Amino acid sequence: WSASNEPGLALEWLDSWETRRKCSADAATLQTILRAIAADLSKENGARSTDTKALVARASELMHRLEKMKSVGTSFDDTEMVDTYNSYILTLASGQKAEEALENMESANIESYNAVISVYARNGSNLREEINALFLKLDERGITPNLETFMRCLSACAPSKKSRFRPDLAQKLIEN
């Protein structure tokens, strides 16, 4: 059994364990369950193990607990924390909330931006403006888009037939 197979069961285990022991789980456990929730939410509706709204609410709670742990001095590996934020971003229901989470990150990377693009795509937003704004933020922060960024942009825009994002930014991506 692993958290990645059934995040709902992992959450039940976490609740039971914390209640019996009257203590909180460590950061690594919370991060593992948060990643499992993100993986489950990325599945097609029929393949998900648990109610989507319940998973999103628990993901927010776990991220809040991790942020609180960090604020009181719990040591985190920066790469692990960025990966956890990226997983958390993928659980969010709106592009705006995803961008807010991105802004709260100390060390956002290209995967963080790719996660936000995925959230926008999932919600069918007015993608041209959002994607252009994200590309500008990438450029301002000196983060180079990668092939995955380009592919996510194309797949996000294709269903809504809004695939025209700024040509100069697309050219920059191709050059890199």
From TrEMBL:
PPR repeat extents: 109-145
Top-rank taxon: Eukaryota
Cross-referenced InterPro entries: PPR_rpt (IPR002885), TPR-like_helical_dom_sf (IPR011990)
Protein name: Pentacotripeptide-repeat region of PRORP domain-containing protein
